[in-house]
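Title: Prediction job returns without error message
Component: structure pipeline
Severity: low
Priority: P3
Assignee: unassigned

Description:
Job completed but the reporter wants confirmation the result is attached to the right record. Sequence as submitted:
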Amino acid sequence: MRLDLLGDPVVGCTDNATFYYASLATNITATFPSFTAISLSKSVDGGASFGGARIAVQRPVFVSGFGPTEMLDKEWMAAKRVAGSDHIHITYTHFALTGPPTCPPAFPPSVLSSIEYVRSTDGGATFSSPIVLDQVCGPIAFLQDSHVTVGNGNDVYVAWESYPNGYEPGRQIKLRKSADNGTSFAPPVVVTDVTAVGNGFLVQGAFRDGLDFQGLAVDTTGGRGNGNVYITWQDGRNLNQTDPFGFIGIGGNGGCPVGSPPGPGYCFGDVLFTRSVNGGATWSPPVRVNNDHIDLKVDQMFPAVEVDKDGQVFTVFYDRRRDSRNFLIDTFVAHSGDAGRSWQSRRITEKNFAAIHDQDALVNSLYMGDYLGIAADRLRQCNGVIVSWGDNSLRDANVAFATVSGEEDDNE
């Protein structure tokens, strides 16, 4: 079977030779794709080459008057070696155009969105049937942007963002935990409420930034923070201003309603962090990661989080603090040596850059990426992290990376 691999790539490894690459997939035909899928490719030579992609989960696609009836999107993956066998955990969003009895009748037609989970216990050769972790139905409400990671023992964590009012206010980050290696999951826990950044969908520079939850990590080092669960997200709760030319959402107020009566506004983004010390049951009050002045009207966006071999916590994010007009972007990395209670940061980019989008007319002309990347050494031989980001400093879109340790913070 022919597979065309699409976007949202995620990479994991279980030793210095065995790497896994998960991706969206389909088969492009002369008329329309016949299925939507999540694929997994495996390398046994340290990533120098990969074998053919295998389908982890797929759904048929039919075309209605409103377009394709099903779509799998935004997958995430975690890999862990258990008793000599590689266990692969994959989550994704399943969108389905549907109607009664699954969803009530509506116009436009209601969309059923689900956060689903599949796993392999044989290195990706076979996968389980999907488990639905959360599900909503409606013409506006949806779920998106799940992340999965493994903890100590048989613990598996899945977190995602819920949009009960679409891009309007009311967003939440939720989490479910499995203590039996993904066989079953405990009921969902609300990690935090979220205030959207920008107008709820776009930020200054007119590129999309509607996914607020970006980072999930667990400390498995055996040190003082062993077992801690960490989450980062972007949030606009701390500072906003009215925007008379701003977007007005379906509900009338947009994602950042300000003023009295509420009207469209612009919420300036901060990177926020929370942790759980009891396996995700309860969560600490949010801590602001970026250390610019809280009254500075600039955005911090796209945070990702990771833990290195020494239990140090790192985040990478876009930061506009060096441009008071809130247009030019830098990449910053913040580091915490006390399990997220306090943070120091440093700028990684040598030159800040403007947004470059409208490069992808096929998918979304407002697209400039949805994630930054961060990874620690899974073999625990090196401390620090490797970070990657979309970099436009050469006046076109490129991907850059850097290695960062916790000994280089300059608190710029």
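Comment from assignee: result matches the submitted record. Residues 197-412 form one domain.
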